[in-house]
Amino acid sequence: MRLLALDVDGTIVTADGRLSPGLKEALAALPGDIYVAIATGRRLSNLHPVLEELSYDRAIVIVLNGGLTIDLGAGKVLASHTLGVDLEEAYSRGTEAGLLLGAIYPTAERSDLRGSEGLGRIGAPGYAGSLTRPLRDACYLAAWGKKPAIDIWAEAVDETGAVRVYVFPEGPGWYHAEVTPRGVDKQVAVASLARRLGISRRQVIACGDGGNDTTLIGWAGFGVAMGNAPPETKDVADRVIGTAEEGALAAFLLELRSPGEAPFWSTTA
Fold this sequence. Notes:
Elements: E1 2-6, H1 23-28, E2 34-39, H2 44-54, E3 59-63, E4 68-71, E5 76-80, H3 88-96, E6 100-104, E7 126-127, E8 140-146, H4 147-158, E9 163-171, E10 174-181, H5 186-197, E11 204-208, H6 214-219, E12 222-225, H7 231-236, E13 239-240, H8 248-255
Parallel strand pairs: 1-2, 1-11, 2-3, 11-12, 12-13
Antiparallel strand pairs: 3-4, 4-5, 6-7, 6-8, 8-10, 9-10
């Protein structure tokens, strides 16, 4: 068995959110002994439209940059990494400052996997001021609001040193802060999945275009960087291909149908 780990934004989909040309057909043509893991920083609810457009039901998904690994076909959470620190005080301060906050918790309940309102919750939600479980048990915490308030809140959370905090624009005048477990990323999650499946590192191919793909691409037996990837990501890749807009991933995947002609995977386990 072999494992193929694919990033989403800038790899599977283009910069304007369209599916990369030819990708649907290329995925469908992959040999049956290849496990496909979709590895993204997206929340599960934001990933579902992409999977539905792909009409792809063989995927294992790794969301929240490694925080949660789910077998969608089985409706089962395979692995989760929780925050491991209580942030109730930060949560309360955020709501008092007018921020919208929410948390995602891991669960094994199939009915919870798709998600609904707010963050597309997984399990018992902490949303709009209502927490039903300790935040240390959450695998993700986020806040939305105006930039000054978000910056102050994110800095206070980051000072705990126990989690990672990312801040980025969400829309005109609005910013989004994400809190994820420190020491967890796509590479950690894919490595754990490979061990679970009995697949060696040498039998893993990873494709991506962002800084959050760099460690995974460098770790994989064969790492592929998209043409729009930053220099540090290209530097650790075994191969650099074109962009999602050019359909470069589909062209690469079609090469995998004939492993003897394109020996990207090691011939030994």
